């Protein structure tokens, strides 16, 4: 009986797609409720709206986060954590790519630092915004490969540090798949690009360049 009832709920015809609520503090609870709705009709519309215009709605949420952080409004910051966690829980590759894009990544990490389940906030941004940066001993000329390197780094920051004990299993599997796929393209570039191999060989056999490149 319970199983039949669940199936009936899943295919209810009276549930219609709905627009995402306005992106403001007053509607945060409603936004979270919509994101957590599992009905496929609602979920499909939500996914479409979230990725629309390169994630414009997500950018608005991040702008709201910036303002709330300046105001030190912990209640709102915790709500925003729940909202972005719910977005991750949707396990959608397009959404993850928007969240971890170059323009959004640092702010998203900031949001996940306000986990209401932790005793205190976690500051991951300071280290990421430091002087470490990305250095190429042998330059990669294919910028799409460079972006895959960056994406793998961002994925691992979230998976292994920022949310290391909090990610749902489905999301972990998706992130692992994305890492493996990126690794395939990165390794293919390294193994198949003659200029890269020549530059690597020159670096290895030149003491001066080797010390300069690895110093």
TrEMBL record:
State the superkingdom: Eukaryota
List GO terms (cellular component aspect). Answer: nucleoplasm; protein phosphatase 4 complex
| Gene Ontology molecular function | protein phosphatase activator activity
The reply to whether Nucleus figures as a keyword in the UniProt entry is yes
Name of one Pfam family that matches:
PP4R3
Keywords, ordered alphabetically: Nucleus
Task: Kindly provide the name given to this protein in its UniProt entry.
Answer: Serine/threonine-protein phosphatase 4 regulatory subunit
Species name: Phytophthora palmivora
Organism classification, top ranks?
A: Eukaryota, Sar, Stramenopiles, Oomycota, Peronosporomycetes
């Amino acid at each position: 009986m319970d199983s039949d009832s669940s199936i009936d709920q899943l295919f209810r015809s009276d549930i219609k797609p709905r627009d995402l609520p306005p992106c403001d503090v007053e509607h945060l609870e409603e936004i979270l409720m919509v994101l957590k709705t599992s009905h496929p009709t609602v979920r499909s519309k939500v996914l479409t709206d979230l990725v629309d215009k390169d994630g414009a709605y997500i950018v608005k949420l991040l702008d709201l986060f910036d303002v709330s952080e300046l105001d030190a409004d912990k209640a709102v910051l915790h709500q925003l954590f729940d909202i972005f966690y719910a977005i991750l829980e949707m396990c959608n590759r397009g959404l993850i790519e928007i969240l971890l894009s170059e323009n959004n990544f640092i702010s998203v990490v900031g949001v996940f630092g306000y986990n209401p389940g932790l005793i205190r906030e976690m500051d991951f941004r300071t280290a990421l915004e430091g002087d470490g940066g990305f250095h190429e001993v042998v330059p990669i000329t294919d910028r799409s490969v460079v972006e895959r390197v960056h994406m793998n780094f961002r994925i691992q920051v979230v998976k292994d540090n920022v949310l290391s004990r909090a990610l749902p299993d489905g999301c972990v599997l998706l992130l692992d798949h994305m890492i493996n796929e990126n690794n395939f393209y990165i390794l293919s570039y390294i193994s198949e690009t003659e200029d890269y191999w020549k530059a690597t060989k020159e670096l290895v056999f030149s003491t001066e360049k080797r010390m300069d490149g690895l110093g």
